[in-house]
Amino acid sequence: MSQVKKSEVKAAILASAHRLFGRNGYNDTSIARIAADAGISTANVYVYFRSKIEILYAIYDPWMRARLSRLERELARISDPRRRLKKLFRTLWRDIPAEDNGFANNIMQAISTATPGTGYKPTLLRWMEQKLAEMVTAALPAQRRSLLGRARIAHLMVMAFDGFIVYHHLNPAGPCDGATINYFCSLLLGDSAASPRRARN
Asked: Crossing angle, helix 178-189 and helix 81-90, to 10 degrees?
């Protein structure tokens, strides 16, 4: 019975945090407000979580892992390299930043204010880079795989992802456009469409 109650309290904390982060943002949501919304004391929150960023990652980490795993399955059904890369970039840079009312922007707020004492760990970041590296490698023709540093490309993709999250927060009507996505597809595929001369025209 005690274990059931513990799981219910933890679920209430996460549900409360999800609502408040989505409504007010990470920076404007306090542990005290999460506790009040969940109907428990502030001290009770710290029984389950050491910090606010730990609460956020308890929500975001499993969601992101499931989202990218779903994307990986969707990509596996696409055989054409360009279409596959377009789906990858479109999902990562345009769709995910907008999903759940732009919830990913909470991560940007959290990381920008994180200190060594807040409990931030780059575990999800490293997993994302590895997963994206695998997806890019699987999408590229065999002759292109050995020419590109997949770890660097994956790192660049995550850094761009972070930027598009912030950009969506500031300008929801201006997502990552098709021209940008096509350009990066051409870069990875080695197409002439990505040459400097073509890019200027």
From this structure: 130
